[in-house]
Amino acid sequence: MFRSKLKTIFLSIAVTGLAASLIFFPRESFEASTRGLNMWWTIVFPSLLPFYIVSEMLIGFGVVKFIGALLEPIMRPLFRVPGVGGFVWAMGMASGFPAGAKFTARLRQEGQLSQIEAERLVSFTNSSNPLFIFSAVSVGFFQNPKLGVILALAHYLGNICVGIIMRFYGNEKPNRNISNEKKFKIRAAMSSLHQTRIKDNRPIGKLLGDAVNSSIQTLLMVGGFIILFSVVNKILYHLHITAILAKAVEVSLSFLSFPVMLSIPFISGLFEITLGSQLTSDVQVATLLQKTVITSFILAFSGFSVQAQVASILAQTDIRFKPFFLARIIHGIVASLLVFLLWKPVYIRFFSTEHTSNALPVGFFGNGAWLDSFYHKMIEIGPLITIFALAGNALILLYKIRKN
């Protein structure tokens, strides 16, 4: 009871302080809010919406069950999750956070995952998409497209390591529903696909409408968190709370022989990865390796902004948030260590300017590459996609209201 009352008091004071800060720093809050809205408006919404809609339809049509039956012999021994986890893993890497949490929660609601399996799965399917790593961070912030290779390797290999570590989480007995003779058989997978389609007897039009509605609702929630934490991060900076927290980090950075100037970018990155990565790239006194290590940790930790999005999605199920949060810390540490381990054999050997004979051409990853072109094209047409998608969703909701 005492702990509950203490929590109530703390939350009340925190929200009251935030409201007062919005009044005292109106211009700074507005600029931070505009920055968060612009990011969601131009990049996040149009890039994630197609993935979310198609994934919802794949689940409804039973394709995910089909994939799960085929991947069961791989995912079960490696990560102790059902084969459908392979679909969540792939979509999480392709579309970025919080897709892993969304699809895990959806499969848990359908009963395709147990609680422990869902907590294992969501722990290692949370990752940044390649578009953000290569275009926004490597090209946009560091002006070094080749740096995206080392960041991506550390990020995705780190997630695999987290998945292997989290397989030891929980003590439930393994699911023996799939017999050995059915493994790898297309017939069993096709049967699973058909049965799932029969159970979900919604017409194609209704299935598509529900997929659009569910996806847009999730992305609206994501946009709200992006804007909120962009404002919170800015306010903490102007209240000098970020500097106070950075003092505690300076001790650890000094122990690692890192410049203390990286402390404020590190703290900012704990709240919001975009700002943290940008501030890290601007530190002149740090070496490129040191800045890459900090950025790798920030990307893996995901920031409290993304974690709040995941917590909101998981709250709709019985999946606990604590394992996910611990996995983010593990991922941050592992991804940082992987940058150290891969720096010389990968970046220095193949991409350093000192070894130009072995270096890949800049255009392969940088200016003129399809990923960079797609990023800039998304900035141009992203707002139009967002407007048409929101208008379409409004029409669908209006039709449902009139029909009822």
Describe the model.
It is a single chain. The chain has 17 helices and no strands. By secondary structure, it is mainly α. It has one domain (26-403). The longest helix has 36 residues, at 26-61.
Mean pLDDT: 82
**Termini gap:** 45 Å
Number of strands: 0
β-strand percent reads under 5%
Shape: globular
Number of helices: 17
Biggest beta sheet summary: none
Structural class: mainly alpha
How many individual domains?
1
Low-confidence stretches: 178-184, 354-365
- Percent of residues in helical segments? over 70%
Rg, rounded, reads: 22 Å
Topology order in helix (H) and strand (E) letters: HHHHHHHHHHHHHHHHH
Domain Nucleoside transporter/FeoB GTPase Gate: 43-137
Keywords: Membrane, Transmembrane, Transmembrane helix
InterPro entries: Gate_dom, Spore_IM_YlbJ
Protein name: Sporulation integral membrane protein YlbJ
What are the key terms here?
17 helices, transmembrane, single chain, mainly alpha, 404 residues
Quick structural overview:
This protein is mostly helical and 404 residues long.
How do the helices and strands line up, and which of them pair or pack?
Elements: H1 2-24, H2 26-61, H3 63-79, H4 84-95, H5 99-109, H6 115-124, H7 130-141, H8 147-166, H9 186-199, H10 204-238, H11 241-255, H12 263-271, H13 273-281, H14 288-301, H15 303-314, H16 322-350, H17 370-403
